[in-house]
Design a protein that fits this description.
Number of domains: 3
Strand content: 15-25%
Number of strands: 25
Radius of gyration: 30 Å
Structural class: alpha+beta
Shape: globular
Helix content: 10-25%
Length: 677
């Protein structure tokens, strides 16, 4: 007996040592400053091992239709987790979906379904859903066999592609590490052999350009591979009668306010779990919805295996955006009924000869991006007499895409913007330069405005403008569009000190991850470097705002962009008046990503405090504080409560803002730590 106890004790010691070895020798999880675990106590992290990773090791369907899957549940180091949260911290919830692609179809049909009856219409609908009634069997530490409650039907096609999805969460809130999520899929053929038929039209990485990350149905649904198992023609919403097929639903959501049906007065609504109402009628896609290739990427690392599906017209896909078309009667379809998808590609070829023709590319041509435009190319060459007290002269060039000179007089609009200082733009002037002198593509313009006497540091001149061009002239499809040039800026010293460009906070590439191609104020402004020349801390909409709607609103870049992207989560109205006194209300905006990820927009590090000492106070007539310190202006544009403003005000003295004392990079409430996920 004594020898047996000794062996048990030795086994326990070996187990502890083995666990310690695994913890110290396994590669550490790659926590970043955007993760809560990055800031957690090292002992807590080593004990809790935050994170959740599912791996489906195998799946099979037995002769009686029983579906089984073996899943390994680990932390990011690959170390096993107890799904019940007994031997490792945090219980792990898991849900499973089983589906297949029938031989005569290209979309999934799920075995795991439920019947949902609408309390509104009384109608019932079969919906793909997670399995219920299944059971787990532990095979090893962190490894489980799940037996589905639902069986495959008799006579199911054993040669078809089958897919198992597992999605779930790990609750670590008691350790202040939030909830971890993961989702994985596994493809297999029950009869054995290689999987040759897949559904891969849009990659998850493409969605995450904006959504950062996909986190639907409470957070665990994170991949397109998993979403399409349920969001297919099998599933509909009995409350509204709308399908939730991915092909239709996603197009409609991204069209949102631009759907013909919505513009005609019918909202686009889906009623989900527990009768939650989701109205997508105010959605405005940040890029032009006609640009199919924003989602259906045709090259690069995010290209899907079936990315060419975008070129295969169908009534479901086309009718989801063009929902005023009645294919049965032909209304809205050149009076031609379409009883099947068999003949769609006869007219709707991938690409035709002209913009706006019936081809997929032609019909979705964004006029301003049409390849038939000659193009406008600006270059800022040099600045002369750019000293304080003088009128600077800019030498610049204008050419078309082929390098042919474009005289300034041929431009519909050509403006040169002089702004400074670059330490933080405080003022600007814009002058019409269509009378600039020069020849052969090179021109010069002397500003009527002078750089103020005593000015120090560096200034900037930016170029903006467009030339009207008619596409398909003389035809019924003729349209005049603005052929705008890409903005160019040039910095110069006004006092002989070294030229100092304005600090860079964001990049056009980051903006265009969602917006695809910034094109503001009618295409005139398309580069952030140009936008900030006018959207400075002193700028408001007072020149455009009607007298009865005053006081003015700040259009400082930091306040404006943060408030626009906060959108419907703002605690105040944010309406800016533009040209012609047109009001632009942004309270309906829904940012598609997680705003806690500052680096989705910011160059990493530029979100940190303190800001440079040269940063100016912001004029904010409709804000709770006016003028407001530059750091407070940035933070309270998102955190817009009166309490947040009061906190900032209480920590501002005649010496300035003390925000960095608590929110500096190494402080307990640093910007990154406060926004960690």
């Amino acid at each position: 007996m004594r020898r047996r106890r000794t062996l048990v004790r030795m086994g326990t010691i070996v187990g502890v040592l083995l666990c310690a070895f695994l913890l110290t020798s396994a590669p550490g999880p790659e926590f970043t400053p955007r993760d809560k675990a990055f800031y957690a106590d090292a002992n807590t992290v080593n004990f809790v091992r935050p994170g959740l990773v599912f791996t489906i090791k195998s799946a099979a369907i037995e002769t009686d239709g029983t579906i089984k899957a073996v899943v390994r549940v680990t932390d990011p180091r690959g170390l096993p987790l107890d799904r019940l949260g007994v031997t490792t911290p945090g219980n792990v919830a898991m849900s499973f979906v089983a589906a297949h692609i029938p031989a005569n179809a290209d979309q999934y049909v799920a075995y795991t379904t439920r019947v949902q009856t609408s309390p509104i219409t009384g109608q019932a609908a079969t919906q793909a859903s997670a399995d219920s009634g299944g059971s787990f069997r532990q095979i090893a530490d962190g490894e489980y066999e799940y037996t589905f409650g639902r069986r495959a039907p008799a006579g199911y096609d054993r040669s078809a592609t089958h897919t198992i999805s597992v999605y779930g969460s790990r609750n670590l809130s008691e350790f202040e590490l939030g909830t971890n999520y993961d989702e994985k899929t596994f493809n297999f053929v029950p009869a054995g052999g290689e999987v040759t038929k897949v559904r891969d039209v849009v990659k998850t990485a493409t969605c995450n350009k904006c959504h950062d990350p996909l986190a639907l149905h409470g957070g665990p649904r994170r991949t397109m591979e998993g979403c399409i198992l349920c969001h297919q023609p099998q599933t509909s919403d009995p409350d509204t009668g709308n399908t939730v097929d991915m092909v239709v639903m996603t197009h409609k959501i991204h069209m949102g306010a631009n759907l013909p049906s919505v513009q005609a007065g019918t909202p686009y609504v889906i009623i989900g779990n527990r009768q939650s109402v989701h109205d997508y009628s105010e959605v405005l896609m940040p890029s032009d919805a006609r640009n199919c290739f924003v989602c259906h990427e045709q090259d690069g690392p995010r290209k899907a295996a079936q990315s060419d599906r975008v070129f295969k017209a169908s009534r479901a896909a086309c009718g989801s955006c063009h929902d005023n078309v009645d294919f049965a009667t032909g209304e809205g379809h050149v009076n031609l009924p379409q009883v099947s998808d068999n003949q769609c590609t006869t007219c709707h070829t991938p690409q035709g000869e002209l913009p706006f023709d019936a081809s997929i590319i032609g019909a979705h041509t964004v006029p301003e991006n049409a390849p038939q435009l000659p193009g406008i190319t600006f270059e800022a060459i040099r600045v002369d007499d750019g000293m304080a007290g003088k009128q600077p002269t800019l030498t610049f060039s204008i050419k078309d895409r082929e390098g042919n000179p474009v005289p300034p007089s041929q431009m519909t609009r050509l403006a040169l913007v002089l702004a400074g200082p670059t330490s933080d733009y405080a003022t600007y002037v814009s002058e019409d330069a269509r009378q600039a002198q020069g020849s052969d593509g090179t021109y010069f313009w002397t500003f009527g405005a002078r750089i103020p006497e005593g000015t120090k540091g560096s200034y900037t001149i930016g170029i903006e403008g467009y030339r009207n061009h008619t596409l398909l002239p003389g035809t019924q499809k003729a349209v005049t569009v603005r052929d705008a040039g890409i903005n160019k800026v040039i910095h110069f010293t006004v006092d002989g000190t070294p030229v100092q460009p304005r600090r860079q906070i964001v990049t056009n590439e980051k903006c265009n991850a969602c917006h695809y191609k910034l094109s503001l104020h009618g295409g005139n402004r398309n580069q952030v470097e140009q936008c900030i020349l006018c959207h400075n801390p002193n700028e408001t909409d007072i020149a455009r705002r009607p007298a009865g709607a005053r006081p003015a609103e700040s259009v400082d870049m930091r306040t404006m962009i943060h408030r626009i992207h906060t959108g419907h989560e703002m605690l105040r109205d944010y309406t800016v008046y533009g040209f012609g006194g047109t009001p632009h209300n942004y309270n309906h905006v829904g940012y598609p990503g997680d705003r806690r990820n500052c680096t989705a927009c910011h160059i990493d590090g530029t979100q940190q405090l303190p800001l440079p000492e040269t940063a100016l106070n912001v004029t904010d007539p409709r804000g709770l504080i006016n003028p407001v310190g530059p750091e407070t202006a940035a933070c309270t544009s998102c955190h817009g409560s009166r309490a947040a403003a009061s906190h900032a005000l209480a920590n501002t003295t005649q010496l300035g803002e003390s925000c960095a004392a608590c929110h500096g990079p190494n402080s307990a409430f640093s910007v990154d730590r406060s926004h960690a996920r």
